[in-house]
Design a protein that fits this description.
12% strand; single chain; two-stranded antiparallel ribbon; alpha/beta; 496 residues; 50% helix; 3 domains; 12 strands; Rossmann fold
Amino acid sequence: MTAVNDRLESSADTDPLPESPPAWQQGYSRRLVVVDLASVILAVGLAHWLRFGALPSTDRGFKYSNYLVVSIAIAIIWMVVLSINHSRSPRVIGSGAEEYRRAWVGTAGVFGGVAIVSMLFKLEIARGYLMIALPAGIVFLGLGRWLARKLVVRARQKHGHCITRVIVVGSAPAVRDLTRSLAREPWSEYEVVGACIPGPLSRAEVEVPGVGSIPTFGDEASVVGAVTATNSHAVAITATERLDGRGIRNLSWELEKLNIDLLVSPGVVDIAGPRLQMRPVAGLPLIHVEKPQYHGAKRFQKRLFDTVVSSIVLFCGLPVLVAIAIAIKLTSRGPVFYRQERIGLDGEPFQIFKFRTMVDGADRMQAQLAELNECEGGVLFKMRSDPRITPVGRFLRKYSLDELPQFINVFKRDMSVVGPRPPLVNEVRSYDDYAKRRLLVRPGITGLWQVSGRSDLSWEDSVRLDLFYVENWSMISDLLIAIKTVRAVLTGSGAY
């Protein structure tokens, strides 16, 4: 206890003072205003230029001037709607898909409103103008937000800026779980700098596997002192039996005086924001966890997306498919395609198609290489320098070109473009009830596992990411994963 008291007294003098979270968040929001304004001006300017030219001609000068007014009006309304939709709220900026979703929903609302007003008042706004401005705006807004987020992530990783320092209040196991969850994403906003553990037993620190030691600052009565000592920006309350509702309310009042945010972790893991709805009942803030959606309109949207994407890839990529097939046939013996039984939706088996990247009969050689398996957990077999891979196959694997024939599986409804990794039969035999939930949706060519490390992931992380996707999938997340996959494939990261 003496060590804890000494830390409370000395930490305020020895710890560096980080920037105030309101300062960096407000500064970032102001920069986003500039980014959004530039994106909106580019979108309406591009539509105006492509539809009417750079300068008015003598025969359509009046129409050009009128549309110049329309462009300015749309740009102003667009910026206002983005603000009304809280697309630059400190609660969503810098991480997650919600920031993009709010910007895109606001954009769709603007153009939907323009279309309705045009129809009601017979303004006859050129459809070509709107058809250019809408997609251009979505692209420019998304690209601008992405670049701004990249700058924030770089500032966090290289300079330690744009960080929210957090004191965690809860039992030691809960502190470890929350700290490990935040540490999995070092680019995230929050950094745990200390803990307060309610209870009669005191300890100097909490050991978090894979992270290090988290200093403690006493029990729940020491929270304000811990915040001051560490110059923290927020307090996160997680599972604890000693801090009841009244105690949390009193703590929130104390933190309010210091302008410190209070976060409450409900202890429900791997549940994304869209499934959580706050429902005040009898003065209590109840969190309603929506059931995962596997049927109905969302499944129809996903199937439509799969059909369109697979058709485009197979049709437009036909020359590439033929070239790869010729290269495989000329450089090694054996068939062009590799077929293997995988397990799909609801545990139904199917034949997956891939370009052959190994020597013919490679499956029979796996037993000889079993001791060289580099996959943590031992369920999968992975080697960085697998001697069975052909030179052409190594190139195909690096850029995931060997998986192009899987779009045939997508077209046949065996797979989806985005989903969990398609498991082998022997993998499924080892599944527990927890892992079997991966089979509630169709497996995908790409997924969270693809954009989060690919072959570098451990078995445990692969299962965790797949289950997070299964529990929380949406069309917005599918689109973001598909976009991130392009970058992962082009860089060849985590592929072997």
